Amino acid sequence: METSFSSLDKSTMPRHKFFRVLGTGIGALLLTGSASACTPEENPIIDTTDAVQKIDFTLRLDDNANQNLKTKGGYVVVNNIIVAQTNDGKFVAASSKCTHDNTLLVYRPSANEFYCALDLSRFDITGKVIAGPATKALTLYNIDSNLTAGTLRVHN
């Protein structure tokens, strides 16, 4: 069985011309993409952190997930809210995300503060910014504690 390419009488392009055309095409694509990145943003990000969300839930202290709340200095994060027991035995609840970079906060009982490990922002237990770069305070929530029943109701 012979294979014949005589039916393919197409002219060929020299290799260096092929790469020049290919390079020009790729360059045009890259230039178009980088030029469009310099145009103003049409859909700016809308800050929705001020939107009031109805919060009302109850934590049972005897649930395994909430065991940390039985000790002073313990905390849990539930429904994007950090609930902590302070060193003096009071319960506090605040938004669990840093107002600067939206990173999850932790409660540091040694300093009695909420702390962002990413940008090092610190907030006191009233939600006020102690150290930035965050400039906006945390949202605080009300807590109704019924230690006899072993429950904490978090609401706004």
TrEMBL record:
The keyword Zinc does not apply. It comes from Spirosoma profusum. SUPFAM superfamilies: ISP domain (SSF50022). The keyword Ribonucleoprotein does not apply. This is Rieske 2Fe-2S domain-containing protein. Residues 1-37 form the signal peptide. Residues 56-141 form the Rieske domain. The lineage of its organism: Bacteria, Pseudomonadati, Bacteroidota, Cytophagia, Cytophagales. Pfam families: Rieske. Keywords: 2Fe-2S, Iron, Iron-sulfur, Metal-binding, Signal. One of its GO terms (molecular function) is metal ion binding. InterPro entries: Rieske_2Fe-2S (IPR017941), Rieske_2Fe-2S_sf (IPR036922).
